[in-house]
Automatic annotation (TrEMBL):
InterPro entries cross-referenced by the UniProt entry: UTP_pyrophosphatase-like (IPR053136), YgjP-like_metallopeptidase (IPR002725)
YgjP-like metallopeptidase domain: residues covered: 21-227
PANTHER family per the UniProt record, alphabetical: UNCHARACTERIZED PROTEIN YGJP (PTHR30399), UTP PYROPHOSPHATASE (PTHR30399:SF1)
Pfam families referenced in this protein's UniProt entry, alphabetically: YgjP-like
Protein name: M48 family metallopeptidase
Taxonomic superkingdom: Bacteria
Amino acid sequence: MVHNYSGETIQFQITYKKRTTIGITMDHYGNIEVLAPKGTPDESVIQLLEDKWELIQQKSKEQKDRLLGPQKKVYEHGESFLYLGNTYPIRIYHDINITQDNVVFEGEKLHIYVKQLDDEKIKQALKRFYYKQCKALVEKSISSYQSNYKVKPRSIRISDSKSNWGTCDSKLQLTFNWRLAMAPLKVIEYVVVHEMCHMVHLNHDRSYWRLVGKIMPDYKEQEKWLELSNWKMTI
């Protein structure tokens, strides 16, 4: 079906099922499907689509962006980067008198101070910022959740892994990916809980997941964020 709303064309499919409420789903390509109880008037479906149109547009853009994959960043004023789950524009300052390139998050912007206007220098300054923030956030989370465990990590390090958000080895050494600083705080906490639970259960058996669920009942929501958003976590 097709419906015009606020100058936009909404294309959607209605599937009638044995259910009590109307639901809206979207596939990986941004195609909209409305799941409705049998006998639902078209007017009710259209009203829901109009009420949710802003959210639908946002989700559709996210799906299409995901299909395109990570886009090459441009290190100029206004380019956006993720930090704690939100995107913020960067502002670049060229100052030959500073002792070291650095990044400061302030006023809803990532302010980048560099001695030399060079893309690689800006990128490395951002990377150091994420490393530093990740270490502080991880250590704070470990401290917050430590009371749930009888054992403590022997060491905590931040890495540049291409395949893992975090690891725990048999020596209770915890390692975390610096890109976690781009994720929401709750997601960071989940990865911390995930790895700390490996201090008790090294594998992913049933006992392990029971412990994770006991400490963080909504952990699947945090896993879903990582699954849907990891392609955006790049500099």
